[in-house]
Structures are given as structure tokens and as C-alpha cells.
Write a structure and sequence with these properties.
Largest sheet: 6 strands, mixed
Number of helices: 14
Mean pLDDT: 95
Helix content: 40-55%
Number of domains: 2
Low-confidence stretches: none
């Protein structure tokens, strides 16, 4: 890894490491969506990735970078769901013990899936800081190796393989919209996209109740919230990572926000018209094409569907609203 900050070479090396283990996810299209939005939109379906989200890319790349000694101590991470599942699966693939610290209010579907991949579960509070503090406490106690969810060059390089795939799949894409939680996906993808296709516009998207990255981008300094409020549980972190923010400021062109109600509407469209299940965070980037439609009319755009992990009860409760 170059100088603790990933390069396009690091992303290409990650792609080689992950080849044959993760899926090269498809691009989905909808003539109905295009007709309604006056765009030529492609949806990067990371909900069809292993564990149902993009997170396996970074987690497996990070775990494969560890020394034998680090692996022997077992790994620990903190996550509201998808990164925990990804780390659990990556650890199982490498035959490593794994502990995941989850929030006390974690979705049953994500908790059960994480356990299903073989991880031990610990719980702590409801914020990312609660989980981090508990993970560090357990790390000190048992000597585990920490697998951070986003603020790490190997995690970022792994997530960047998604952007590399997009360029290979749509070489003339004009704009790529990416959901922003901790910033791992957008920082890695932005680096990959801008390195391979400098003309592309990379745009991050958050919900209005969790717009810390948008505020950080606008003010050009890292903003940390005391709390967030959104149905998109992958965006409930209180700030993006330090390295992620630095890379966003270097490679991202703009940030947008969308209301939760439009996220639900987009989830409903995916289910009814495209027959796919998308979790709230996964629908955020696509919703922005509708909410900010004038920006994307008559353009070839790609929106990343970051994941599809949501329980049946939660899914239909949201869609009934």
C-alpha cells in the first residue's frame, strides 16, 4: 500500500486478489425509469454481491493483507450490519476467528446473517462510537486485530474495485452516483473512476437526516454530528472517516441529499418494476436521479445500489407507508 493512502494500482491489485471470490455485479436497466427520468440510467447491483452488499470487497481485501500473526489472533470489527457480515464471511474464508460488535438495535436479519457466517456477536449502544469503543475494549482484552469499516487504505482499495468494474462496463458513463455512509465506497470508487475516466462526474448522496458528509464537503472540513435520523441504517454514522474525507475532497465532484420518503419510493420502484429487493441505504443514490432530475436529463448515468439486506417485516412496513 502506497504511503497509507491507496492508489489506482492498489485498487487493481485488490481486484486481482478478489477475482473468482467476489462477484462482478451486473448493471441493471429499466426502460420505465429512463422514460420517467429522461436519462439513460444503469444500476450497479451490489445487492447481488456476496453477503448482499459491496462490503465484502473491502473486508476480504483487508483480511488478505494481514500477516499470519495478525490472523492468528482473530479479528474484530464494529458494524450496524453489512460490514459485520462481510468481515464474518471474509474471516470464515480465511479460517480466522471473528467477533462483530453490533448496535443494540441492530436489525434481526443482519444480526442473524452475521452469526450465520460464523461470527461471535457483542452489542454496544446505538451509535458507531459506542461500537468502536466496545470493539477497542475487546481488542485490548483479547488481542484481536481490528478490521475498520471504512477508514483504512485496504478497505478503501477493496471498495474501489466496484468503481473499476463500472468503468469497464460503461466506458462512456457521464456521472456516477454513490451512497455515502462512512465514506469507504465513495472514496475508493471516486479514485478508480477519476483515474480511468477523468471526465466522469462522481457524486455522493446522503439522506437529509444524515448529511454529515454533505456538510463536510460544503464546508471543506470534517463535520461530526451528535446524532442522525434516517431510515438508511448504513448512513447513521456520525461522520465519515478522516482518510475518506481527504479522498472525497480530492476526487468527488459534488454531494446531494434526498428525503427518506423518496428513498422508500425508490425501494418500491425496484420491487414492483424491477423485481429486486433493495435496502434503504442501497436506494439512496438512485433516488437522487429522481429528486435532482434536471441535473441528469439526457445523460448516461450510473447509480450504485450498495446493498439489499433488509428483513421481510421491515421491508414491507416501509413500503406500506
Amino acid at each position: 500500500m502506497s504511503m497509507n493512502s491507496p492508489t489506482i494500482t492498489d485498487i487493481e491489485e485488490a481486484a486481482s486478489k478478489l477475482a473468482g471470490i467476489i462477484h462482478t455485479t451486473p448493471l441493471l436497466t429499466s426502460r420505465t425509469f429512463n422514460a420517467q427520468s429522461y436519462t439513460n440510467t444503469f444500476f450497479k447491483a451490489e445487492n447481488l454481491q456476496r453477503i448482499g452488499a459491496f462490503k465484502i470487497r473491502g473486508a476480504l481485501n483487508k483480511i488478505r493483507s494481514l500477516s499470519d500473526e495478525e490472523k492468528s489472533r482473530g479479528v474484530i470489527t464494529f458494524s450496524s450490519g453489512n460490514h459485520g457480515q462481510a468481515t464474518a464471511l471474509a474471516a470464515r474464508l480465511e479460517n480466522i476467528k471473528c467477533t462483530v460488535v453490533m448496535p443494540e438495535d441492530a436489525r434481526d436479519s443482519k444480526r442473524n446473517a452475521t452469526q450465520g457466517y460464523g461470527a461471535e456477536i457483542a452489542t454496544a449502544g446505538t451509535t458507531s462510537e459506542d461500537r468502536l469503543n466496545r470493539a477497542m475494549e475487546l481488542q485490548r482484552q483479547f488481542g484481536y486485530t481490528l478490521i475498520p469499516p471504512y477508514d483504512d487504505p485496504y478497505i478503501i482499495a477493496g471498495q474501489g474495485t466496484c468503481g473499476l468494474e463500472i468503468v469497464n462496463q460503461i466506458s462512456d458513463v457521464e456521472a456516477v452516483l454513490i451512497p455515502v455512509g462512512g465514506g469507504g465506497l465513495i472514496s475508493g470508487c471516486a479514485l478508480a473512476l477519476k483515474s480511468k475516466l477523468p471526465s466522469v462526474k462522481v457524486i455522493g448522496v446522503e439522506t437529509e437526516g444524515a448529511d454529515d458528509a454533505n456538510q463536510s464537503f460544503r464546508r471543506k472540513k470534517l463535520i461530526r454530528y451528535d446524532k442522525t435520523s434516517t431510515i438508511a441504517d448504513g448512513m447513521r454514522n456520525l461522520s465519515v472517516g478522516t482518510l475518506n474525507f481527504e479522498m472525497m475532497m480530492r476526487y468527488v465532484d459534488d454531494m446531494l441529499t434526498v428525503p427518506d420518503t423518496d428513498v422508500i419510493s425508490m425501494m418500491r420502484f425496484f420491487f414492483e418494476r424491477m423485481k429486486i429487493v433493495v435496502e434503504p441505504t442501497g436506494a439512496v443514490a438512485s433516488a437522487a436521479i429522481r429528486v435532482h432530475n434536471e441535473r441528469f436529463r439526457n445523460k448516461k448515468v450510473c447509480a450504485v445500489i450498495s446493498g439489499g439486506n433488509i428483513g421481510v417485516g421491515d421491508f414491507f412496513t416501509l413500503l406500506k407507508n
